[in-house]
Amino acid sequence: MSQAPLLVLVGPPAAGKSRLGKRVSHLLGVSYVDTDSLIQAEHGLIPQIFQEQGEPVFRSLERAAVVSALSTDGVVSLGGGAIIDPDTRKDLHPLLVAWVTISPEAVEPRIQNSKRPLLAGDVETWTRLVAERDPWYREVADEMFDTSNRPIDHVANDIVVWLETQEKP
Prior knowledge:
Elements: E1 7-10, H1 17-28, E2 32-34, H2 35-43, H3 46-53, H4 55-69, E3 75-77, H5 86-92, E4 97-101, H6 104-111, H7 123-140, E5 143-146, H8 152-164
Helix pairs in contact: 1-8, 2-4, 3-4, 6-7
């Protein structure tokens, strides 16, 4: 990678990574890339990809989006399952990674009537998914930021303050 992101956000679906990434990039005056948005711009809606082509095809598209996003120099938000891929986890090790978390109670209203392919609006399914991925989030994360009970602007400010104390990759 010739360039490297200033910050990468990882975490479960509906934790607020995209909103947070946009806010942090605005505060820092840098670009913002969301891998789910990259996939949708090029290949269509994610639920449709899952339904018509299956999860393995989606994960392949996601990996390509991650490689593209990690060649930028701003803030990058990865889809909730991107860390499943061992090559993605390897790519994240030299970078600054913030793990965005949220409690099941706080996420429940966000995922009701969700079109997210692996959730079906079910907090129990979400909780199991997060538990399965927890070791991978822990493996790549440098710091954890919770969005359960605080305004997203406050969490974004916390991330900027944390970044100011870190050595750039």
